[in-house]
Amino acid sequence: MIEITDDAPAAAPASTPLADAVAAPAKAALPAGPLVIIGSGHAGYGLAEAVRARDAERDIHVVTADDGGLYSKPALSNAFALGKNAEALLDESALSIERRLNIRVHAFCPVERIDAEAGRVITRLGELDYGQLVLATGASPIRIPVAGDDEALLSVNDRADYAAMRQRLEAVGRNARVVIIGDGLIGCEFANDLAQAGHRVEVVGLAERPLPGLLPEAGSRVLREALSDLGVGWHLERSVASVAAEEDGYRLTLTDGRELEADLVVSAVGLTPNTALARAAGIDCGRGIRVDDHLATTLPGIYALGDAVEIDGRLLPYLAPINAGLRALAATLTGTPTPVSYPVMPVMVKTPAAPVCVVVPSGEAHWRVTETADGIEAGAYDAGGRLLGFALVGEAAMARRSEWVKACGQSHAA
């Protein structure tokens, strides 16, 4: 900020170049060449749109291995409740996005490698030079080792996977037998959605309770009981040892010897960041692609955003941190270097039987739990009594969400 004192020279008129220079933030020179974004998910397209809003002329290319259609990936786990098939989930086609944003979308064009020294990506369809490169490569489902017919395990991570799941269920009809492997966020969301649609759902998980990484024990209990009331069965502290195809479905043998029959087996044990391209290019990676507070990788001119990114040793595969990141990165890529500032970022779990909102505490914390009419609200506090996070389960607690977010924000800022 420039402070004008009594003996300072008079300010120039607002229309003069001097005033423009003072008012406008300093901009960094942009490298020659287009902005290339690898990935057409929320992070990739969201960034392209944010950059275009700041620069009407920038040459922007989005490179993707799929058809480039825009859809909400979080909606995959509650699409049955929404009554949507795979086509109805599509929000916008690649061609429409090209026209709306004046960008180029390279669909069905998987990237084979990055030549960082030459500033070029090599794809199955040819080579593309870049001035700046953003890796929005997302994450892929973890595959657990299972004896027998492991192809029976269906992971739902895109519209094609969702279409395959609907096809299998429609072939069986209502009241299909569904086994979901995974007691975390995605597993619970699918359990709620499919049970609500009238299917017989069993959840198999290694933990002793659902959402153990997000909720205190009391919150997990409320969620488990609410899903049980929908008809969901639980087989916790165990996993699937083998799967055998039978004439009318599949027979699963659990690690404790118990057997389950299923028409559909959904694997929802988690995601792993897609780091192969980055690693092969020589970019530093841990669990994800490591970035600094400007989302820059360890190679000049290459940035990363979204589910593939590791920030201060943590993975944040949620919409709120991605949205915060793409706004800051758009500024950086258009000449105004801007560090990412992350606000309090609640995670919403789409389980209508017992809706969940949680801010995961960083570091050691203890929970103070209060029961509500239909669930719990809990604060996570450090040893000094500072609020680090919270967990709300049930409609009554969710009604106080804004109060908890505000309190958490004030505590973090203190």
Description of the structure:
The protein has 414 residues and is an alpha/beta fold. It has eleven helices and 29 strands. A hairpin with a 2-residue loop joins β23 and β24. α2 runs parallel beside α9. It is globular and about 60 Å long. The two termini are 24 Å apart. The N terminus is likely disordered.
Secondary structure tally, helices: 11
User: Structural class from helices and strands?
Assistant: alpha/beta
The rough form would be described as globular
Strand order of the largest sheet: 5-2-1-9-22
Low-confidence stretches: 1-24
Helix content: 25-40%
**Average predicted local confidence, pLDDT:** 90
Radius of gyration: 24 Å
Assess the beta-strand content as a share of residues: 25-35%
Biggest beta-sheet profile: 5 strands, parallel
Instruction: State the oligomer.
Output: single chain
How do the strands and helices of this protein lay out in sequence?
Elements: H1 17-23, E1 35-38, H2 42-54, E2 60-63, E3 70-71, H3 79-82, E4 90-92, H4 94-101, E5 104-106, E6 111-115, E7 120-123, E8 126-129, E9 132-135, E10 139-141, E11 147-148, E12 153-154, H5 159-172, E13 177-181, H6 185-196, E14 200-205, H7 217-229, E15 233-236, E16 240-246, E17 249-254, E18 259-262, E19 264-267, E20 271-273, H8 276-280, E21 289-290, E22 302-304, E23 309-311, E24 314-315, H9 319-333, E25 347-349, E26 356-359, E27 366-371, E28 376-381, E29 387-393, H10 395-398, H11 401-413
Parallel strand pairs: 1-2, 1-9, 2-5, 9-22, 11-16, 12-19, 13-14, 13-19, 14-15, 21-23
Antiparallel strand pairs: 3-4, 6-7, 7-8, 10-20, 16-17, 17-18, 23-24, 25-26, 26-29, 27-28, 28-29
Helix pairs in contact: 2-9
